Amino acid sequence: MIIVALDFPNADEVKAFIPKLEGQVEWVKVGMELFYSEGPAIVDYLQAQGYKVFLDLKLHDIPNTVSSSLKVIDTMGVGMVNVHALGGIDMLSKAREVVRDTLLIGVTILTSHNDQAISQLNLKGNVFENVLNLATLSDECGLDGIVCSGQDLKGMKDKLREKFLFVTPGIRLNSGSQDQKRIMTPGQAMRAGATHLVIGREITKANDVGASIAAIKKDIDDSLIA
Ligand code: C5P
Description:
- The chain has a single domain (2-225), classed as TIM Barrel.
- It is 45% helix and 17% strand.
- It has helices spanning 11-21, 32-38, 40-48, 63-74, 89-98, 115-120, 127-140, 150-153, 186-192, 201-204, 209-225; strands at 2-5, 27-31, 52-59, 80-84, 103-107, 145-147, 165-168, 196-199.
- The chain starts with a strand and ends with a helix.
- 38% of the residues are buried.
């Protein structure tokens, strides 16, 4: 499943881009920049165009504040939202109580953190051990899945519930890696166990958006046959 990351600064740029998708994908992602600039109206617009929206706001606060905020988000009818698993068991459980019909995804350790950053935070273990711990907590609290890099999928899938979702960014096929350090092709990520691929610039910056999506779908299909 492809989720196109709409990392645009405002609605005008989104509205100029959306016709290029021409209904070739089901899901789009709205992140903090776009949401803070346009508010719920951008979500309404995308849903009216027929897209399912992943609202990527990475909520992290005390349980009461997160659950109150999720109640507001729940009225928007989005298909997927996320919270930081570092918010802890109480926050995750309360979040799950509020968001019943929307896919609830846990952010584990940000991919901008390496082992050194983990140690500076005085967390025990390396990045992978922390990702696995937070994934397990998310699973136990009834979340639907986690965001994780393709590399972290290996060694994690069999430790979590069978239907757990793995939402994976850092996907590249033809374009350069830009600021992403740990990248995988769409096919490699799906073979490693990703269930949803978050893809931004590979699609949004393509000269031919339709051809880019077709190539991504072919790479996925080929990898699943192979
Ligand atoms: O353009 P690109 O495909 O690199 O965009 C990836 C998207 O996934 C961006 O919206 C980025 O914020 C998001 N993301 C990420 N790494 C994470 C979590 C989210 O790149 N660990």
